[in-house]
Amino acid sequence: MFNTKGKCSPHAFSFTILLILISIMLNTGYAQQYWQDGFPLFQYIEAWNYVQIDSLIKLQAQSTRYDAMETYPFILNGMDWKWPLNNPALGLPAAEDIDFRISQGYPFYIVADGTGHRVVEINPGATEPVIVWEFYSSNPASDNYLKYPVSCFTFEEALSRKYVITDKLTHRVLIVNRETKVIEWTYGDKTPGDGPNQLNYPSDAIAIPNSSRILICDQGNNRVLLVDRVDKSIVWEWGRSVSEGTLKVPVDIEYVAPLNSVLITDQKNHRVLLVNIVSNEITFEFGTGQPVTSNEGLNNPTDADWLSDSHIMICDSSNKRLIEIDPNKKIVWQFHRPLNGLIDADRMPDNRTVIVTDDEGTRNRPIRLGYANDSLVSKVHDLNHNVIFDSLYLNLNKQTDTTNVRIQIRSASQVEDLATEDWYGPTGKNDFYTQSVTAINPIHTGDLKFQFRVFLDTQDPLFTPRLNNLALSHHFYDADSTGQVTSTIISVPPSQIVTQWDSLTFQTIIPTNPTDRQNVHIELRVLDAVKNIDLIDPIAVSPLVEKHVVRLGENVNWKGKGVQAIRIKAKLFTSFSSLTPIIKNWRVDFSTMTSTPSKIAFVNSHYSPVKYYHTTIPISENDPNFQFIDLVRVKLQDTNLSQLQDNIRLTIRVRGGQDSATVNLVRQATGEFVNTIGMRAFISRFPDTNDNTFQISDRDYLEVTYRDPLDPDDMSTAQVLMIQNTQAKVAFVNRLKAPITEASLNDTVYIRLTNEKDQDFSPAQDTLFVEVFDNKTADNENLMLLETLDSLGTYSSGEFFSSPGIRLVSGATGFQTDGRIQTLPGDQIGARYDDNFTPDPVVTLLIRQIQDSVDVQISGLYEFLIAPNPFYNEHHDILKLRITSAIGALKLKKIEIFNIAGEKVREIAGETIFPAPLAENQPGYMDAWWDLSNESGNLVSSGTYWVKFSAEVTSSTDLTTQSISVFKKVLIIH
Fold first, then answer.
1. From 100's CA, which of 247, 622, 663, 756 has a CA 20 to 30 Å away?
2. Among 42-51, 377-386, 815-824, 940-949, which is the least confidently predicted range?
3. Coil, helix or strand for 15?
């Protein structure tokens, strides 16, 4: 025999067989083929243990994302200047208010130092501030003594610089000449009250430009006053009238000249409002009246300033924020970090802002806010592995035109080397990361320590760029785990056979750095895909070369001869977490020859495939029924063997039993293998396994399996159903399945088969066909019969019934395949059924003459005809009706049916029979107008019944209508 196609075993064959073999080789042909994986992508059915497969095979990268941010975001500090606490000459301020003036382009700050009992003006200077003016007296009895100054407002008048000072604890407002330090005007007699020239803990005061009036925030009296300096008269007051608006601890005021309005900070009402001096109306208000921590309100505001663009800057003290809102009450600017104890703020022309705040725990300290370019360096971050950096992710807040964030990275394997490393952007030392999801410079590959530095740039002191978060994605390879991958099954289609596995070739990508090459390792194995065993010793792949060739068939250890399907398995190792072994492509070359799949089937004596055999209980060859049982035959088609072997032995088994037999298939001239002498099978539950017959139960199967010895994947099977042959009984019946021997024209007759279990092929409803014929009219029709349910509700009854039946119609000549039988009275019609157990059982039926037609000549003014009458239930199906009027249109109103005792058994509405009137001389026909049931739906008994027709007739001559009633008698016989 042949172990592989095209290769001969040591057993000798005849010279003829060798010539046939050569012929097959020439006709089918050997071919060189290859399997290649890697273009356009690798395709595998198995992969596990940290393996990544795309266009390459390598270790699965352990991808991570490292959040490199510190505990706070990277942002410009914004503290442009602070009152120095280490300069004794300046003193320790406890500022309650700060104002500024610009002289010759330089700013000067005026500070109301509450607990220091003074007002000072300082030059902040480039390095250290200097006090350039001071109003102070240590004598409490002096008018110049300030007990607790809380506000100082500067203005020019008559070419002199003057200051409006609010001394809260002496309940007065005074105007001081800067040059002479003389008090030129006061309001308040140093006693709290709300009478003329009295105030109650005032908190702020300002001079109205180009007028003689002073605007005073009289906090203790919850009011705002406008006082004329000439006679100290109150020309306007607001805040204590319920109708106008009630103030609650006002702390700051500002005059808005373009609107002739007062901006009031109403602290305990948690609001800022704008009041028109002429109308006393509130024209703008921000705040809800309650403390609010969201952007919709305020919490204890301490100061509000009207800006040149109609925005309002607010010290939202308890919320620790300095904000700017627009006329739509939306926050359009906010200082980037909380400000504790925020009291006062003033925006300068250069967009810097001077404030009074409790910064760093120092109470009421003057500070200047203004963002400026700066750079910050992160702490050292440790990634725990030598990694390959992927992308940098940034979460930034910056303004397109005024701010920017630039980032660089440096890295090293050891922390002590980090300080000497250069900083890099994405492409080199002179560029920067500015966008999120930017590829990280590969210069950092293999490092595990890194730092980043952030350049924060701004062109406007009001705005700062903000780096909220910085994260790096990277990957590494687990040096403690082995990657393993198995290829798809490498085989040929069923039409071919592998005769030789020739070679395995593959490529690897080796590390660029020669010193790294010993850190990566690959081991390859070639496996029998069916048995999953090694076909060659494991192959250790050298990391020093890129192209590899393994000669499989020539290897002395090769065990793959005759194997039809293989797999390649690779194991990947690394000893350095930033390196991975990489396989670029696999290819297997092999030789093949053409093959064809086998096919096996159970067949009949003509060698045509069959789905079932008929058999019976054991009988002898002399039994006349022996000729009607089948013999078991098998046919095998396999061109791979057809020219190499003369016979094949196969085992046929009984699926549900223990019997089996071996058959010898002999090669025919056509190349097929068959057992020319069939084997007998009998219905029996007691097998004899040595008698070369099959003992089998009814409805059991015979099975046979064939496997191509040259192609293990080529397997074919067949099965056949064994059915005990039974003799069917055929009968003509009526629709109630009662046997009949006669029928009349226009009857419908039915066929019933019983005891036909050998045609019951499946648990579902089966069908068969019976031929109905009339030899005299030469008509025949094939009538389909359906299997009926048995008592258990399953289709195993062996009974078949034709429903619907077949109609008998008058005709001397048959029209075949019209679904009816053309016949004449006196003819005999027959039913022929082809059963292989008995030759063509035939039954006949006599056609008799019975008047059952409504097609008769009309005689009278109108006629109501019922047929057939009498009605025989055993061979009639339906009652027919014809109605005709010769004198006009007839409309049927109703039909009433009475039994012989005069009892009404059924009433039928006329419009359900004939919905429209019947025209004159135009008969109306209706079949099955009464189904012989009563009002309860039950079938009426045999007997005589009276049918009353009620109708209306409209004359065709004078159009008069008359009602008529007609009685007809009908006889029903069951």
1. 247
2. 42-51
3. helix
> What is residue 196's DSSP assignment?
T
SS3 assignment, position 23: helix
Burial of 673 (0-12, 13-18, 19+ CB in 10 A): buried
Amino acid at site 268 = K
Three-state secondary structure of 935-956: CCCCECCCEEEEEEEEEEEEEC
Tokens of 910: 């006329």
Find all residues with CB under 8 Å of 710, minimum gap 6, and list them. 2, 3, 4, 5, 497, 595, 640, 641
929-935: long-range contacts at Cβ-Cβ below 8 A with a sequence spacing of 24 or more? 929/879, 929/880, 929/881, 929/895, 930/879, 930/895, 930/897, 930/906, 932/871, 932/873, 932/879, 932/972, 933/906, 934/905, 934/906, 935/905, 935/906, 935/907
Tokens of 790: 């048995």
Q: Which residues contact 342 (CB under 8 A, 6 or more apart)?
A: 302, 303, 315, 316, 317, 320, 321, 322, 355, 356, 357, 358
Percent of the chain having pLDDT more than 90? 54
What type of residue sits at position 148? Y
Residue 512, both tokens: 């660029």
CB 972 within 8 A of CB 879: no
pLDDT, residue 624, reads 62
Q: Radius of gyration of the chain from Cα atoms?
A: 57
Q: Tokens at residue 829, please?
A: 């019609």
Residue-wise pLDDT for 627-654, tens only, equals: 667 889 999 998 766 555 788 999 999 9
SS (H, E, C) 565-590: EEEEEEEEEECCCCCCCEEEEEEEEE
How large is the average pLDDT for residues 18-45? Answer: 65
Per-residue pLDDT band for 923 (boundaries 50, 70, 90) equals: confident
Q: What is the C-alpha separation between 823 and 807, in angstroms, rounded?
A: 10
∠ CA 922-925-929 to the nearest 5 degrees?
145
- Cα–Cα–Cα angle for 929, 933, 934, rounded to 5 degrees: 115
Return the H-helix or E-strand segment holding 641. Answer: helix 639-642
Write out 82-140 in H/E/C secondary structure.
Answer: ECCCCCCCCCCCCEEEEEEEEECCEEEEEEEECCCCEEEEEECCCCCCEEEEEEECCCC
Question: pLDDT for 493-509, tens place per residue?
Answer: 877 778 789 999 999 99
Residue 698 has pLDDT above 70, yes or no: yes
Residue 301 and residue 343: Cα distance in Å, rounded? 8
Q: How far is CA 41 from CA 57, 503, 584, in A?
A: 10, 22, 10
Rounded to whole angstroms, the Cα distance separating 555 from 569 reads 18
Q: What's the pLDDT tens digit per position in 817-835?
A: 888 999 988 888 988 887 7
Closest CA to 392 of 407, 404, 413: 407
Region 277-290: what's the mean pLDDT?
95
Nearest Cα to Cα of residue 587 among 203, 98, 37: 37
SS3 203: coil
Tell me the C-alpha distance between 919 and 883, whole Å.
Answer: 11
Q: Is the pTM of this model over 0.70?
A: no
φ, ψ of residue 27 to 5 degrees: the values are -80, -45
**Which tens digits make up the pLDDT trace of 51-99?**
888 888 999 888 899 998 887 789 999 998 988 888 888 887 889 999 9
pLDDT reading at 759 higher than 90: no
- End-to-end CA distance of the chain: give it in Å, rounded: 78
Tokens of residue 266, six digits: 């109403």
d(CA 93, CA 365): 7
Q: What is the pLDDT of residues 94-147, one digit of tens each?
A: 899 999 999 988 999 999 999 999 999 999 987 788 999 999 999 999 999 999
Report which of 267, 266, 332, 268 is spatially closest to residue 295, judged by C-alpha positions.
332
Q: Read off the pLDDT of each residue in 344-352 and give the average, rounded to a whole number.
A: 95
What is the rounded CA–CA span in Å between residue 400 and residue 398? 6
CB atoms within 10 A of CB 423: 15
